[in-house]
Design a protein that fits this description.
The complex is a heterodimer. By secondary structure, chain A is mainly beta. Chain A is 0% helix and 55% strand. Classes of the chains: A mainly beta, B mainly beta.
């Protein structure tokens, strides 16, 4: 069955360092979504990628969709304490049109 | 627009009891999905409802059930509660089925003693 691998599970950085989380699938995806969940909060939608090789930017966040549409990454440049939280990818593939969620990457930022 | 609302926000139950959680989606959203979130397990998909019909279901036992009403509001029920059911239950609404952007509610924190 379809599986979603998200790595790393945890990342601890100093404020100002960069951060990247990766999402890998065993199947070709229709799209991929990224969400952020702050501690004690609920997941909030960040972006959706649909096209092969797509790159989208939101301020310090850069999202990429692989050429083969089997992987994706989220890169944060110069992390800030406001970036703390868990970042989830959610993959769309298959005829049932059900989103499959990664386990998330928890980011901690030292001020 | 008001966001997704969930009630109650916190709930404490004992093993063997049953519980009903409620979710009101964003106005105009017709799809409601339910997730269970526990530390280390991420978001586990329970089910998705659209137009009062269950369209997708996750790998949870039959003790977990849900329904959707004509106004798109949804409820989920867990019967014969077990300790392992302690979790944050999140509801998410979206405009349509499948791969649409999900808008999450604040969740219901269920503790089973």
């Amino acid at each position: 069955g379809q599986q979603v691998m998200q790595i790393p599970q945890y990342q601890h950085v100093q404020e100002g360092e960069d951060f990247t989380t990766y999402c890998n699938s065993s199947t070709t995806l229709s799209n991929i979504q990224w969400y952020k969940q702050r501690p004690g909060g609920h997941p909030v939608f960040l972006i959706q990628l649909v096209k092969s090789g797509e790159v989208k930017k939101q301020k310090r966040l850069t999202f990429q969709f692989g050429e083969a549409k089997k992987n994706s990454s989220l890169h944060i440049t110069a992390t800030q304490t406001t970036d703390v939280g868990t970042y989830f990818c959610a993959e769309g593939a298959g005829n049932n049109r059900k989103l499959i969620w990664g386990l998330g990457t928890s980011l901690a930022v030292n001020p | 627009k008001a966001g997704v609302t969930q009630t109650p926000r916190y709930l404490i139950k004992t093993r063997g009891q049953q519980v009903t959680l409620s979710c009101s989606p964003i106005s105009g959203h017709r799809s409601v999905s339910w997730y269970q979130q526990t530390p280390g397990q991420g978001l586990q998909f329970l089910f998705e409802y659209f137009s009062e019909t269950q369209r997708n279901k996750g790998n949870f036992p039959g003790r977990f059930s849900g329904r959707q009403f004509s106004n798109s509001r949804s409820e989920m029920n867990v019967s014969t509660l077990e300790l392992g059911d302690s979790a944050l239950y999140l509801c998410a609404s979206s405009r349509g089925l499948g791969y649409n952007e999900q808008f999450f509610g604040p969740g219901t924190r269920l503790t089973v003693l």
